[in-house]
Amino acid sequence: MNMVLLGPPGAGKGTQADMLIKAYGLLHISTGAMLREAVKEGGELGAEIETYMNSGELVPDDIVTKAVTERMNKPDAADGVILDGYPRTRIQAESLDKALREENKSLDTVLYFKTSEEVAVYRLSGRRVCEKCGKNYHVVNIPPRVENICDKCNVKLIQREDDSPETVKNRLAVYGKRTKDLIVYYNEKGLLNEVDGDVQAKKLFDEIDILLKKKGLIENDDSN
Ligand code: AMP
């Protein structure tokens, strides 16, 4: 199954993707995570990407699409992927359609996380990240066992540069200008499923699980 998670920054797409891959074993492709890796690797391209990310702007379509299609063509993506943070523009959505077609694959569903700005800002401003393993926490909603320390790696958590209040404001504005259109794009294709991005993660996961089973996209293993 190939699935796109669509919604504003702070909608909880990454958290749901983690829960979905644990439950169904699909490959998680997060363009944000891929781009952060490219920044860490440095070089000219890394520096260029960093400038866009730190201001909350989108990285150019061709750079992101190349990275995603290369990743999707690796053998471990054969059984399906969860695309988190991609596509974010109409051009990217069309590139994704084309790339899937060329591999005789298709997009099975799009989950649109309808999320209020208030909830998105609250989640992003309280988000803390482990620099080593990339695990996300929230100071109130998902606190680590020891304050500000990663449960797994035992290293200090950081606040992402682009989670600063000014950049968050711009990221949400960029979403409104560049990405929101995709709701119409996927609705017209009959692929869009709206879910409530404001609710707590476990409740939303249960809702998604029921939805995917109803659509026959994952096996219904309830024996009773
Ligand atoms: P995220 O982790 O999904 O919030 O992404 C963090 C940042 O990475 C975004 O604000 C963009 O600068 C960049 N980014 C992630 N995905 C894309 C994409 N599909 N197209 C362009 N830029 C992206």
Radius of gyration, in angstroms, nearest whole number: 17 Å
- The CATH H-level superfamily of one domain is P-loop containing nucleotide triphosphate hydrolases
Low-confidence stretches: none
What would the principal axes of the Cα set say about the shape? globular
Helicity range: 40-55%
Spell out which ligands are present: adenosine monophosphate
Classify the fold: give the CATH topology of one domain: Rossmann fold
Number of helices: 9
Quaternary state of the chains: single chain
* H/E series: EHEHHHEHEHEEEHHEH
Distance from first to last alpha carbon: 25 Å
CATH class of one domain: Alpha Beta
Mean pLDDT: 94
Number of strands: 8
Q: Quick one: biggest sheet?
A: 5 strands, parallel
Task: Describe it.
By secondary structure, this protein is of the alpha/beta class. The chain has a domain of 149 residues: Rossmann fold, CATH 3.40.50.300. The chain is 47% helix and 14% strand. A hairpin with a 5-residue loop joins strand 5 and strand 6. It starts with a strand and ends in a 10-residue tail after the last helix. Adenosine monophosphate (AMP) binds next to helix 2 and helix 3.
What are the SSEs and their pairings?
Layout: E1 3-6, H1 13-24, E2 27-30, H2 31-41, H3 43-55, H4 61-72, E3 81-84, H5 90-102, E4 109-114, H6 117-125, E5 127-130, E6 136-138, E7 157-158, H7 165-179, H8 182-188, E8 192-196, H9 201-214
Parallel strand pairs: 1-3, 1-4, 2-3, 4-8
Antiparallel strand pairs: 5-6, 5-7
Helix pairs in contact: 1-9, 2-3, 4-5, 6-7
Residues 9, 31-32, 35, 52-53, 56-59, 64, 85-86, 88, 92, 162, 171 line the site of adenosine monophosphate.
